[in-house]
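Hi V.,

You were right to ask for the full record rather than a summary. Here it is.
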Amino acid sequence: MPPKPKITKNMVIDAAFEVAREAGGENINARTVAKKLNCSTQPVMYHFATIEELKKAVIEVAKDKFPKLVKDNKIPAKIKTPLRDGDEERDDEPEVYGGMYFFNASNKKRPTVVDRDKTPLTEDDNVIYSGCYANVFVDIYGFDTAGNKGVAAALGGVQFKKDGEALGGKGVTADDFDVEEDDEDDYDI
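Predicted structure:
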């Protein structure tokens, strides 16, 4: 009797689904799925004789999970979400993001930013920083525009709660720059 495979068929399907979600169904192949599983391509091809068989299995999973998104047996390319895996998207800073998930939220307008007592804060106050503890208002919404489909997060407001360990670099302030004279021109064209 052959040994029980360590990488199961469902693990391969789940990894392929993640590839489709992040990069589009057309990017499902033995290498991209194996990379997600942190293994060689052999377990992928052990469970599926062809990549087309794997793509069909992923489409069936997608139909079950997201029936409104799967049309004509195709998974939309790059279903976007604000949730990010720190191990994959921020491997340049493993001490900060390793083993963690984070999400991106943005807004075209500056969000409301207040202190613990609701006193409005400005950027010059230097109270809010990457790593501080805060209460946040985030609006989660779905979108489907010009072929882009997914979920996004809009940052509505931030309330400082307490200091924490600063993440990453220290940032830049106006004091980090030199005063420039008007008559200097370093950009001769």
